[in-house]
Each structure stands twice: as structure tokens, then as C-alpha cells.
Amino acid sequence: MLSADVRTVVRSRSGDRRTRCALSGTPEMRGHRPPLSVLYMIESEGLTKRYGDKLAVDGLTFTVRPGIVTGFLGPNGAGKSTTMRMMLDLDHPTSGQVRIDGRHYRQLSNPLAHIGALLDAKAVHGGRSAFNHLLCLAQSNGIPRARVHEVLDTVGLTGVAKKRSNGFSLGMGQRLGIAGALLGDPEILMFDEPVNGLDPEGIHWIRNLMRGLAAQGRTVFVSSHLMSEMALTADHLIVIGQGRLLADTSMAQFIRENSRAYVRMRSPERERLLDVLRDAGHPASPAGEAVEVDGVSAADLGELAARHRIVLHELSPQQASLEEAFMQLTAGSVEYHAHSAEQRPMTEQRSAAPEDGLPEAPPPPGTPGAPPPGTPPGGGWGAGWRNPKRRS
Length: 392
Prior knowledge:
This protein is of the alpha/beta class. Helix content is 30%, strand content 22%. The chain is globular and about 75 Å long. Keywords: ATP-binding, Nucleotide-binding, Transport. One of its GO terms (molecular function) is ATP hydrolysis activity.
């Protein structure tokens, strides 16, 4: 934990400067919560957006709080990008509102000092160097020139600061976008898919950066489709589907409520172990060579086995991943479904069949026109357009 001497200087709505500790757990903060005017938050109330007949966002109400990393999750088309654009007044809500520290984004006189955002790393003038791109942002927000050098060093682009951004790789473009978000040293940071194009070192760096910013008491709001990375980064989750709020909860509670947790046991005396578990009233089911038990801790099961002198080769609590819990919760909200070669829609399968309705048998292996070894039934992906008979 950082010491109580680590502080940030913030400006309240009335304009006076106040010093606050970076962490809520420091001695000066315990029992002395600062007023809400000092706590920088994103507040969404009944946020709704329609595009013609399409309801993109449907009455979203949530609060993104400081001191933690809040993950923003949802399937493709769920309304995440639209919601983030409305936060920055890039899109106007049909109804409802979203506030940045109690105000609309358009009411902020120097917005980069309040909220830094990365929504589209490609939204850069390709003819400008990395330094000049950031310098334009700094000059328009009253930020000192020296700050440009600081953020370039932070994101690792000092060596290419004078190069034009149109020659940057995807990962370098992401770093430049992150530098722009950090430029005003804001209390609120918002990132949309920040790890896109980053190499493993860059992913590790941005993860630690976001967690470090949250540890300073800042508000960090991040959207990503990489569940494995989100599981390592976020403390709290806001999940939406088809524009509606599905979950607003901690990471641990989200996984616990949307997945199955059980204990896996393996023993050379499996049948005897099953009898002991059932006699003790513990629901147990065979799973191959193992036994799965729900609703009992691993410690209690280990003690039960020890009392009956049953040798265990495995005693391991099993918990679903964030990805599995996410898939479980959003199964009914996925708008765009893909199909594997073996799961082609029936309409496509019918159109691919000959006129008599019977499937055409493939030529025997080794004969002209035979599919290559290992080809799945039906010919695999693209079989329809590769077969001239089916195209005619």
C-alpha cells in the first residue's frame, strides 16, 4: 500500500484546491470520507439512445466509482461504444443523462483535466508526428508543453516522438491514444479496448498502469472483449446486453452468481468415496475417474475423507472463469451468432443438396475429386462455393 504521504491535488466545483490522499485506506482518510464534490465519478441515469427503430441503449443507470478498475462488458452490438460516446457528448442521448463529476461533458472548461479517454486510436491526423499530435491537444486545454514529454516517456514513444503517426503499427497507435488520455493528468480515465495491438509486454504494462491509477484513487472505466485480461485487471463489472443492464457487481460476485462452483475429488477408492459422501448428505456425481461435489468446501471434504481413511489423489476447488460466467449470463443477449462448418444453418444445407433431396456422397479417398484427409463431414467451411455443382 502507498503511504499516506502520497497525495493528489484536486479542484472542487467551486474552484478551490484541495489535497486528498491517493488511497482511501490511508490514516487521514479512514472515517473521513471526502465530500462527493471531490469524488470524481461517472454517473449514468436512464441513459437511452435510439437510431430510428433501433434501440441501441435502453435505460442504463449505473455509477463508475473511484479507487477501483471498473470493467464494461457486453457482446458485440450490446451498446458499449454508444454508451461511451454519450459520456463524451459525441452522441446525444434520446433520453436520460450521463454526468462527469456532476456535470455534462460539454460543461467542462478544460475536459482533459477531468476525463481522459481512448475510444479510437486511429482518430489521429496521420500527417502529424506523435509529439505534435499531443502538443495540439495540450495547447487546446492549457496543458504545459513539458507534459507532452512526460506522457510520451510513460507510454514508451519517446524514441519515435518526431515520426508521423501514419507509419505507426497498431500497438504504437494504441500507446499514442493512451498518452492522449493521460495528457491532462485527469481523475477519470476511460479506455475502449486498450490492449488492441499491444504485445505481451505492452499488455502487462497497461494492466499495471490501470491498476496503479485506480490505486491512486482515480476512476478507471475500461471496455474489452478479452475476458482473460479483464479478469486480471477489473475489480468491478458493469455488463450490458442489447442495450440493457445485466449486472453491476464485483468480479468475484459476478463469477459466483453466474457459474457453478464445486470440488473435484479423485481417489483409488472412488465407489467407497461416493458412498461416504452420500451417507454424509453431500450431493456427489461421478465425472470420469473423479467425483464432483457441490455446496461443500474442500476443507470439509478433506476432513471427511481423512476420518474414513480414504486416500485422495486430488482435492481441488473448481471455479468457472470470467469468460464462462459471461457466456452464461449473456447467452440470450448475443445479437450476432456465428456457425461452425458442422453447424451450418438448415437453409444453407438444403440449398446445397441435389434436386432429389439426398446428400451427394463424396468420392472414395484417393480418387479424383476426393476431399483431402481430415476434411470434416460436408466438406468444411467454404465447401458450397468450392463445389461447382452447388454453385450452378
